[in-house]
Fold this sequence. Notes:
- This protein is of the alpha+beta class.
- The protein is built from two helices and six strands.
Amino acid sequence: MAYDGHILCKKCRLVLYLGKYKEGRFWPGKATHEQFQLGLAQFIEEHFAHGDVIVMGDGPYERYLDACPLNEWPVTVFVEATHDGRIKLVEQPSAMRG
């Protein structure tokens, strides 16, 4: 069984898409496990002080989106590894958004 994971900063309307959790890690991931952890820590560090960070699985996140007007949907970011092994948070292309 697998499920999607999301970490949402409601204040910034920004969500870190973790991917599908399966067999002990999130997939698909082009970043190594360590790089993924760094990206996750970076997102939490940048948004935790905003006081409205929520971790959600598929169902709760879909219900959250259903309750939001389309113009208030959060922007999705992903953890991406750079060519030199560093990490960055990259915005999902607008064409891929709901």
